[in-house]
Fold this sequence. Notes:
By secondary structure, this protein is mostly helical. Helix content is 60%, strand content 0%. The chain is built from 7 helices and no strands. The chain has helices spanning 4-16, 21-30, 37-45, 52-61, 67-70, 87-98, 100-109. Helix 1 crosses helix 3. The protein is elongated and about 55 Å long. It starts with a helix and ends with a helix.
Amino acid sequence: MxxxxxxxILRYYRKLYNLSVKDVRNYLYSKDIDVAIKTIYxxxxxxxxxxxxxxxxxxxxxxxxxxxETFGYSExxxxxxxxxxxxxxxxxxxxxxxxxxxxxxxxxxxxxx
Length: 113
């Protein structure tokens, strides 16, 4: 059974460490795991999933220590993956925070509350 969290978490950690898919592929290759770049994109999009051994190797590479909890296998675990924001989104959020008088108007426009 596929775990939808695997794709999001693998993509999140690769971006967190500013790694390219080629960097990941080269690391796996150094560990005698020969995969195509396309395969890694498949894992990150949720189309396929790595084998258990490959997933463990990726967890070591990404310094994921609590594997069961990180991927949502522990009971009562909620996955909380920070959202990666674009530069434009960061500017919008910073502007929103600097203008408390406009926050209600923005919430109304976005139909929040």
